[in-house]
Design brief:
The chain is α/β, with parallel strands linked by helices. It has one domain: Rossmann fold (3-Layer(aba) Sandwich), CATH 3.40.50. The chain is built from six helices and twelve strands. The strands form three sheets. It has a seven-stranded mixed sheet. Helix 3 packs across helix 4. The termini are far apart. 37% of the residues are buried.
Length: 223
Amino acid sequence: MSDPRPIPASRDRDAARTEALFRDAGAFRDGHFLLKSGRHADRYLEKFQVLQHPPAVVELCGMIAARARGADGQPVVDAVIGPTTGGVLLAFEVGRQLGVRGFFAEEVKEADGRARRELRRGFRIEPGERILLVDDILTTGGSLLAMLPVVEEAGGELVRAVVIADRSGGLTEVVSPGTGRRYPAEALWTLDVPTWEAGAATCPACAAGIPLDAPGSTGTTRG
């Protein structure tokens, strides 16, 4: 078994390079944005403006993969998993660079309307397998939290979670909603982007009458 201690890396260098890749791709925008959570923000990261460029994906995944290698340079994980949609690309490429499997979990709806993550398409985690969890942008942490039961219920060992960018400004661990277990987590790039509840009384951009942009899968702008 390889040494489980990660190789020390230049976190500042990774953060600066990740930000540069987003800016170069036009993926770090200023304005008035509707987030998936329903809150508003004055800055937005459009991940797929970066992820559409294979060289950028390879470089970002190389930074992630470096955090899953031991002091001997060997991977300390047996598989890489991510949530749909962005996590599909990341899990595959990080897995390729580490020489391990890379796969994903999909969102499914329960009868009561609640969403959960599930392995499909023959993907599976074997008991005791060491898992690296990857994702693109962390805002509230909901996507990562939804992935933890997938790993735990299969008997996998989550070594760490790594995201490209952390908008919350404070990612150091994720806590399982089911078991209370704590797992180390980190981001290549951390930025503190404030968000507000919608409405002129709470959101400065609403108060200023700036048109609301609903980016992402909707791709619409609201006046």
